[in-house]
Amino acid sequence: MKPCPECQHDIPEQAATCPQCGASLPTKRKSDGWGYEYKSKAALFGLPWLHISFKYRGWRPVPAKGIFAIGQFAIGIFTLAQFGLGLVSVSQVTIAGYALAQVAVAYSMTAQVGIYAHEGRGPAVTSVADLLERGPSTDELEAVEYTPLPRDDWKASTPAEQGLDPRLVAELYHDAAELETLYGLLVVKNGHLIAEGYFNEGSIDQLSGRQSATKSFTSALVGVALDQGYLSSVDQKMMDFLPEFADQVTDPRKKQITIRDLLEMRAGYPWEGRTPPYFDVLYFSDNWHWLPHIVDFPLMSDPGTEYAYSNLTSHILAVIVARACDTDLKSYAQENLLSPINAEVGEWTPDPDGYNWGWGEIYVTARDMAKFGLLYLNDGECEGKQVLPADWVTDSLQRYSEDINFTGWFSSKAGRYFRDIGYGYQWWSARAGNHRFDLAWGHGGQLIVLVDELDMIIVTTADPLYELPEEKGWKHEGAIIDLVGKFIKSLPKGETSKPE
Fold first, then answer.
1. Domain range summary for the chain, segments of one domain joined by +
2. HEC per residue, 323-370
3. Which end of the chain is more exposed for a tag (fewer CB within 10 A), N or C?
4. pTM exceeding 0.90
């Protein structure tokens, strides 16, 4: 711990902002080099098969020493020797060298660096740890501070007390301190807050739009409305709640769209980020009245048949709940979802028609995001009260769509670690290493990750990146995705037993 120079409150060593007074603090970033370096895990005679290095210490280059590089060098020497003996022509040498160079560059770009397509969800460039030649030392890890801040809204504990290796948690927070846009990072194990840290502009009370993580809150409110009888079934038709557009709809398929289709992102509306011009129409046309798009946005598939990630679809869900309950979503959420779990909605931005956005813009703290996640880990129960029906939690975290492909080029993955991407009722699911998990996921790196088999929750908050939509913000969002994915992958399989 170190004292804040403004208020003298004790704060973590790696903190960039004082959680008490908000003062900005200098942070130390440790690195013995800069640039990009990749070493494959597969090795021969102690040398990696592939070693790519565009890294420097000061201004001295770090050479690549790998089987592939050594082999390429040997082939080059052999080819030059042949040329010297007159066995090959200049054109042959040129073609061979060019081909070798292109193969190396192509492999490096596609397999290790990553090229974005469509939404830019290809492999992230690299994590901070990969930019360093070595991982953090024992002394560096012992200096990392992640003790939960003193407040009575969470039961605090330590990784060791909850059966988790403290070194893994220290590595997580060591890497987190290097990220430019990360605000908060929390780890909950067995219902206890075991690690907490804030960075850059983050603090324990920091609020900003949690972007598409909002969709999972909207989904929960559908479950509450069903439980309270305001909605009768997920098979109710969308148009039953939007009668003013009934005479304008010319595609008869739209009259068959159900709440279930909307929840599963299978209504048939365009995947706006991948289907021009619909993303620009929603966000850059200076017209935030979205409901008429129910009519003018075409269906790209029959309802209930194909997955397409649609922000319009999520907002329609929010409007349906608000109309069914005859109230605004923020008030309804506070009374029926957040207050029962001792959490609070700081703000929830409404559209010009007064409906809170169902796709994004809910403002909650990192700690309250973790409480929302814990509600799902505990099958909808909080302190003995059933806040959400257990069946709704189960249905929400099912995988109704499998192998979701963000890029159109690669398999179902996001960043370097998230694999086998699926979707439920406005909740994502994925795998990292041996562990499967569910998650609420918002642009910029707003995450509520539920690792049920380990009774664990990981929460990240970050800069919402309003000025960097879609693939332009992936450099930063991908770094946070990789931070979390690397941590989950590092966790031992079967670490499910709770301490006595």
1. 37-113
2. HHHCCCHHHHHHHHHHHHHCCCCCEECECCCCCECCCCCEECCHHHHH
3. C
4. no
